[in-house]
From TrEMBL:
GO terms for biological process: proteolysis. InterPro entries: Metallopeptidase_M50B (IPR052348), Rip2-like (IPR044537). The keyword rRNA-binding does not apply. This is Site-2 protease family protein. One of its GO terms (cellular component) is plasma membrane. GO terms for molecular function: metal ion binding; metallopeptidase activity. It is found in: Cell membrane. The chain crosses the membrane at residues 81-105, 126-147, 153-178, 199-223. CDD domains: S2P-M50_like_1. It comes from Allosaccharopolyspora coralli.
Length: 244
């Protein structure tokens, strides 16, 4: 597998942020956390889509390799603006981390409904694994406060992405996992709702306090299960959103 130089550059940005976050200077520390979160989140968007693609490849869809989906190149995951820039913008302004791009899967080449479900689950599972790995690193490695805070906030964003994507809403991966098992009329209804259902979901989470509180309570519960430290994540968010 050939890894895209652009993906390696995103990892480089994240690594540079990790270095800056170790400084005592408040400005350097905030700059480091910003680079950790933006670089790390963009990298995780690529890994999320790679998870879909590599699972589809192993399930029988050889076209994903020809399309370059296995190179971790963010330019190939649908539209660069919708797939990378817009999700980064939402993270930057402190909003819900939107799902990234999407890889085109030839479902006819997959061997079974179980395989189709596994392809859908592979993306959010990648986010959960990344969140778990980050929390393990923060918990087991002695590191400066700024670095621990930045990595914890990035881990929390991974958990939010997992919880969000696992909701059984058309257009999200949670629905994609159950869609192969639904009746034909239900799948047709889901296909009609797919373009706008996620937007309604985001509006409900952002605009209705009870819904937003329930969603983030669930996200914090999962974050706690993977060993996350909410205090560190909160400090990381504060350093990231230094203008507030």
């Amino acid at each position: 597998m050939r890894v895209s130089p652009l993906f390696l550059a995103l990892l480089g940005v994240t690594a540079a942020g990790c270095v800056l976050a170790t400084f005592d200077s408040g400005v350097a520390r905030s700059a480091g956390v910003i680079l950790i979160v933006l670089g790390g989140w963009a990298s995780s968007l690529c890994l999320h889509e790679f998870g879909h693609a590599v699972t589809a490849y192993r399930g029988g869809d050889r076209e994903v390799r020809a399309k370059g989906y296995l190179t971790l190149d963010p330019r190939l995951y649908t539209d660069p603006v919708l797939s990378i820039v817009l999700p980064l913008l939402f993270v930057a302004i402190g909003g819900i981390p939107l799902p990234g791009g999407a890889v085109w899967i030839n479902h006819g080449a997959l061997g079974s409904r179980r395989t189709e479900s596994m392809v859908s689950l592979a993306g959010p599972s990648t986010n959960l694994i990344l969140g778990l790995l980050l929390t393990v690193v923060v918990s087991t490695v002695q590191m400066p406060f700024g670095l621990a805070a930045g990595l914890s906030y990035l881990a929390f964003l991974q958990v939010i992405a997992f919880v969000l994507n696992m909701l059984p809403v058309p257009g999200l991966d949670g629905y994609g996992a159950i869609e192969p098992w639904l009746s034909r009329p239900a799948r047709e209804l889901g296909a009609k709702a797919r373009p706008w259902a996620p937007l309604i979901l985001f509006a409900v989470i952002i605009g209705i306090p009870f819904a937003g509180s329930a969603f983030f309570s669930l996200a914090y519960a999962v974050f706690d299960l993977v060993g996350g430290q909410a205090a560190y994540a909160a400090e990381g968010m504060s350093l990231f959103r230094f203008w507030e």
